[in-house]
Amino acid sequence: MGVNSRAPAPGALLRRASAIALALGLGPWAAACANKPKEDDKPQPPEDESAVAAHNPNLRDLRVDGTRCDTRGVRSEQQDTNHDGRSDLVSLYSTTPDGSLRCKQADLNFDGRLDAYFHYDEGGQLVREQFDQDYDGRIDIGSYYEGGSLVLDELDLNRDGFVDAWRRYDKGRLTRIETDRDGDGRPDLFAYYLGGRIDRIGYDVSGDGKVDQWDHDAARRARLAEQLRAQNNAEAKGGGDDDEAFVDEPEPEQSEPEETTEADDAKDDKAKKAKGKKAKNAGADEAGKGKAKQVSPKADDGGGTASPAEPEATPAPATPSPAPQKPAPQKPG
Length: 333
Hints:
Blueprint: H1 10-23, H2 28-35, H3 49-52, H4 66-69, E1 75-79, E2 89-93, E3 101-106, E4 116-120, E5 126-131, E6 141-146, E7 149-155, E8 165-170, E9 173-179, E10 189-194, E11 197-203, E12 213-215, H5 218-236, H6 262-291
Antiparallel strand pairs: 1-2, 2-3, 3-4, 4-5, 5-6, 6-7, 7-8, 8-9, 9-10, 10-11, 11-12
Helix pairs in contact: 1-2
């Protein structure tokens, strides 16, 4: 008997299951259960985040802003940057005569799903960015720009879809970080930065959105933590060169005197003799310089020009006087 290569249609399978259920006496309800699809097989409705936040209007969800990135009524250009056959960069342009850029959408990890959105104003300047950094299909960071400078970051730290941290900037420099610790949509911890380093921390204990307690010692603890982290990194590198680390020069250790040999003693004596000879020559040079000094010339009585001073006469060495001679003896007359 040959094998039927054609598979039965889904409707025929359902009718066959119903007939078998009736033949076994399971009743019409069994046949109805056989025709009823499983609940798990049904497509689940998307989660309505606005309904979740309805009880607390302070919660702000992070989602793609369609103001500038709406694909309807625009001209799109698609690019395949990694040449895998799928578009991973989409640019949207307005249909106005100027045809200005409105939005760019990118697939950063090339999985076929968009992960980054860049919003542009009418003049083509970047005004907003949105990123899905963990590639779970949800936006977890959004940045705002004014005049080309970063002014605000909105972050979802606990990955629940709502903003719980804000980083504020002044001309692109970080000035304050606000954090929502209790999940009510309002910040209750404020970290202030000065010169790129943490300066102080404030806490909102009463829940009114204002700082009730200040921690001015946070800067010292932050510096200690940075020093400890740098020390741990230096130790992990095995004591290699680190441009950011500063190490004081170690003090010289007191070493014990080494034993000297006859050759070393002879070398030391020779060095001492050479040093003494050099000092002697230096003394002779100084004495010669002192003798070379001349007396300043004096003008003559007649008001004429002064004659050069004559060199001092060197006294002649004294000659020894002759020894007295012994008188010769005389004969008596």
